[in-house]
Queue: 4 jobs
Job 1
Amino acid sequence: MPGLPVINPALALTDTALLSEQALLQEVWLTPKPGLVDASNSGAHRDMDLPLFLASIAAIAPWFAQFVTAGQQAAELPAMQALAQVRPVGIACEQAMFSATAGVNSHKGGIFSLGLLCFAAGRLTQRALPLSQASLCAEVAALCRGLVMRELQQSGRQATVGERLYQRYGLSGARGEAQSGFATVRRYVLPYWYQEQDASRRLLAALLRLMAVNADTNLVSRGGLAGLRYVQQSARQLLNSDWQIADLQAMDQQLTLRNLSPGGSADLLAVSMVLAAFPA
Ligand SMILES: CC(C)(COP(=O)(O)OP(=O)(O)OC[C@H]1O[C@@H](n2cnc3c(N)ncnc32)[C@H](O)[C@@H]1O)[C@@H](O)C(=O)NCCC(=O)NCCS
Ligand SMILES: Nc1ncnc2c1ncn2[C@@H]1O[C@H](COP(=O)(O)OP(=O)(O)OP(=O)(O)O)[C@@H](O)[C@H]1O
């Protein structure tokens, strides 16, 4: 696939920030992705395309090292207090994204999840602890302990999509997934990572696995619970078959027609790519 950058395994143990940037690049170039922005089309999106995503990634990329540094600086704080140290960095990074995209939300979810991973990596390395899928996910879970209760259950706020969908359906979205230590990624994606030999097919299979199970608030905000169910069932059907690229292209058309975009699963695909670079 033209333009698809490849993660250099030699970086895996040393640079979570660089891995995060490469994961975002790989995610957006990966084609065909149902309903999402990719190299062929903008899926269900009318306000975004590949050049906008590349501009957004260029704006976000320098922040990943800031998340790692913030983690190193907050290494000695108890996990529950450390989250407050990373949030201003996350918000500044979101602002850099919105400046680069003229106000379009291209990567809010990705910034949140990858920012937490980078912050966790900084905290662990500063304490001379080994980086692994298990240690990174446990650290993110510890950082986010109580987040869903504080920000979604108790606050009662309905300012963002995620806050509204929690009040309405009890979906905890990106916060819930982080608080669980990326349980969806650990349970449904990483164990099957090397089942596919071809790099691009491996990523597409991982995306299908995510779409089959993830309670993606992007899908619910665009198509209600029926939209979420539709995507989960379509992905499950493909996973139970000998799926080919043409099947993903057909699914792309169906999701685009229905205005459905699994943005949360795209974010978790990037998280999966970063984690897959580390030992279990
Ligand atoms: C928590 C955030 C994502 C709030 O957004 P919101 O309330 O709309 O939440 P919601 O979960 O619905 O979705 C946000 C985005 O996450 C992604 N997402 C949706 N569902 C899921 C899911 N199940 N799992 C993972 N990601 C998901 C989508 O891309 C979506 O657009 C975030 O914007 C925030 O609080 N930002 C402040 C910066 C910050 O705290 N950073 C800390 C670490 S960097
Ligand atoms: N390739 C991709 N294509 C589309 N969305 C993606 C992609 N990769 C990640 N995402 C995630 O999807 C989210 C954007 O989804 P969406 O545009 O549906 O949200 P929104 O802007 O809140 O809603 P709307 O467009 O309905 O106003 C981003 O936060 C981003 O993290």
Job 2
Amino acid sequence: MGRTLYDKIWDEHVVHTEEDGTAVLYIDRHLVHEVTSPQAYEGLRQAGRKVWRVSSVVATADHNTPTTGWERGYAGIADPISKEQITTLDANIAEFGAAAFFPFLSQRQGIVHVIGPENGATLPGMTVVCGDSHTSTHGAFGALAHGIGTSEVEHVLATQTLLAKKAKNLLIKVEGQLAKGVTAKDIVLAIIGRIGTAGGTGYTIEFAGSAIRALSMEGRMTVCNMAIEAGARAGLVAVDDKTIDYLKGRPLSPNGVEWDQAVAYWRSLHSDPDATFDTVVELDATKIVPQVTWGTSPEMVLGIDARVPDPDKEKDASKRGAIERALQYMGLEPGKPLNDIFVDKVFIGSCTNSRIEDMREAAAMVKKLGQKVAKNVRLAMVVPGSGLVKAQAEREGLHEIFKAAGFEWREPGCSMCLAMNADRLEPGERCASTSNRNFEGRQGAGGRTHLVSPAMAAAAAVHGHFVDVRTLA
Ligand SMILES: CC(C)[C@H](C(=O)O)[C@@H](O)C(=O)O
Ligand code: SF4
């Protein structure tokens, strides 16, 4: 019987399965950041344990790092708790070791889900874990990657294994060509709009179809990044030439004979033609329009040509209540066209959309519009996902386009994706954001988040309100 890509990677890594289905899974790559690792290392220390396979660990500081003031070094980290988390990671890696460590201020530092792939730390067929829910991102490389909790971080550090139960297989097929201006972010928001934030619960999602094949690796990472917002712990895309080309020559990628052997294996990393999925969902890419979230969950999303929903039209009482609460929090009136929503801040960044292609997409929109950030927008910021992305963008002159238009060009990190560092929304502020979560208070207490693509965020910054980027071509 044919196997899915998920089945194949799972089978390769199972060490043992209990009668109730609980499996011991071997872990190839462990990505570590400063938020979810301190207690795990402390646990090892107290038990007198070492890290089982130091060469599997790749670490960086990202959530708490400031995006300004790097010239002041560690003194530039204003918040004492942030500073402590960052220095604790430094000390833990110094004591326990890692294959690679990109600390605060280093040139390769960045968001863990950006630096993993760009350094070749994420390879096809691997099991990848990180104490972070957006680890699903790495599934874009045909790796089985998912987030784990702090106690599991300790377990993996100590044993190189994870206890897990196999999920079901969900195939999401997106067929057809995207319209101009419609991007990977719009695909994944449209998927979540369709299946809901619980649609993928209990599944590993494989994203397939011609629209997914046509995406760059960056685009595939954007899609897999938000698999977790669709309820699935892991998302996958089959390996193809793009995957292999992306990885060639990366610092931690294999080379020489090992590269050839690896590529031969990687080419088997796709679902067999006769593989069966527990559930199949199909989307027509030609019908996807630029998406904007209007509420406080990623599933509260509509095309830019829509209006804010009217709770009175919802028959289901609990859904009606959810819409009412969301609209109240978001300060929105039913029936308002989405393109009449004005924003106070714009954030282009996060592990969803801070790679070089996202920077290019946003810069191209700013350049095309040829105007400055609108007067009503208090702050428009672009935060590259890593030091390497920043350097590449600067080589291409993208920072000059942003700065000339009035955007701030910052140092890499999670930044305003979540309020764990100095970048945040003030109560009541409304933000066009390229991140992945729009929960209440996510970007700061009382802050209002609208999730969009980089092109949509750039256009909102210049116009001061949302606009359909398809009309700007
Ligand atoms: C801080 C971390 C544990 C968290 C996560 O797991 O995703 C964060 O990255 C987020 O995006 O909410
Ligand atoms: S950028 Fe945002 S979603 Fe991604 S790891 Fe950082 S906080 Fe989490």
Job 3
Amino acid sequence: MSSPAPTPRPALAVSCEDVARTFGRGERAVVAVHGSSCEVPFGSRIAIVGPSGSGKSTMLHMMAGLETPTAGRVSWPGLPDVAERRGQIGVVFQSPSLVPALTVVENVALPLVLDGVPDAEAQERVTEALELVQVTELATQLPEELSGGQAQRVAVARVLASRPSLILADEPTGQLDRANGQHLVEVLLATAEQLDAALVISTHDIEVADRLQERWRMHEGRLKTDEAGLKRTSVPRATHADTTTAGGQR
Ligand SMILES: Nc1ncnc2c1ncn2[C@@H]1O[C@H](COP(=O)(O)OP(=O)(O)OP(=O)(O)O)[C@@H](O)[C@H]1O
């Protein structure tokens, strides 16, 4: 008797339906994102461009599940297991946010330790990630001993070591010179390729955006995914969505 066919992986890493995010209340309320929708399939390479304050970080944080939308919903059809999802979504923050008391190697290993990855495998992944972003020689340094650009590369190594299937990078090259910035984008692209991950990068740098297959634009809190040059044909919509809505996760 033949064994049952494996369940195909749903195509979408994340889907946002009419999401909005307001900070503060009353007169002080700031609408960072107005109703915006998008779909990010596994394997896609997307740049989000837009001026400072247009809502790029807020949008990425909602895609990561770090911010809860005040309206609309975010779902991760291809990452339905809430417990596993934490390790599957890798976020590179605008500022590196390393743990000050831990060395570079300990910072990169931390998520793996927390996820219970066996020591030998964790060590292998950390070594590989440090090599990829070319910071091996900084392994025993503390964050306070690093330049901004070095710290950002370490933060990227920490994400790569987790081998995520959705990589969300917020201005990852903002603190790097041109050559290092280009190298980092190549590393993110190569890693996404290797992992068949979705990669979304917010950036002000048009050279970075040019390296990616699609370009979306944020303007005054509204996301436009249909600019000229956008080339994705239809993406199959998954039927079982684990969802974050206004009011929290379910
Ligand atoms: N936690 C917060 N509390 C209050 N307002 C916020 C908060 N986070 C973001 N905002 C506001 O929401 C708007 C969008 O901010 P966001 O950081 O998402 O923009 P951005 O496009 O990523 O900007 P940049 O390119 O400068 O990082 C801005 O007006 C910002 O001041």
Job 4
Amino acid sequence: MIDKARERLIFALDVDSLEEAQRWVALLHDKVGVFKVGKQLFTRCGPQVVRMIRDGGGEVFLDLKYHDIPNTVAMAALEACRLGVKMFNVHALGGADMMRATVARVDEQYPRGSAGRPLLLAVTILTSSTDQTLLELGIDRPVTEMVPRLARLAADAGFDGVVASPREVEAIRAVCGPDFAIVTPGVRPAFAAVDDQKRVTTPADALAAGSDYLVIGRPISAAAEPQLAAGKILQEMAAALDAT
Ligand SMILES: O=C(O)c1cc(=O)[nH]c(=O)n1[C@@H]1O[C@H](COP(=O)(O)O)[C@@H](O)[C@H]1O
């Protein structure tokens, strides 16, 4: 079960240099299956960080949350595919046309089922957002309604899955079915601080709800003993997978 748990643990490499990223990959590669490269690290290092992780045998989640006009996102998505990442994301709030254009462009070069095609993920509502955040944007529907709505929009556009809080997994499954990938940040083991996350659950609860991948950063990176923290999380995940 530990191996299965490892495949489903994504570590957020929220650091500012290639050397630092290398250090974390070396430290955690036996506990983490996928490393997430986000805006900070990619802006600093570019594609070489993706190559570094892949050369070391790790998989990459490219988390650049594209949100732009359809053609721009579709072309950026193609570049993400060319980097050989396992998954990448766009913002579902970019709209159905943007997501459909992205799927169409990726389909041309990386047909569904072909080797090297990454998972196309849509971020629903950020895990740092609340109903109040949405109200301030002029959206008067609650997060609990918006998340499955955006997930369905992404599924209808041909996306493979979404990024959401583990609290919404059940509602997403109800509208998108069992094969839709659900990637959940907003995961906090009992020993860690919540930080700026608002909609969180424990790793065990996220897996019990049916989450496919857990994205975890600071509970590991800010721990006094990161390897120990990652090991504890992995144990908790393996026990939860055993119980399902
Ligand atoms: O797309 C993401 O990865 C993402 C979406 C979301 O809704 N919330 C969210 O926290 N993330 C990312 O997941 C990571 C969570 O990190 P920690 O809060 O440190 O565990 C960060 O790198 C975020 O950028």
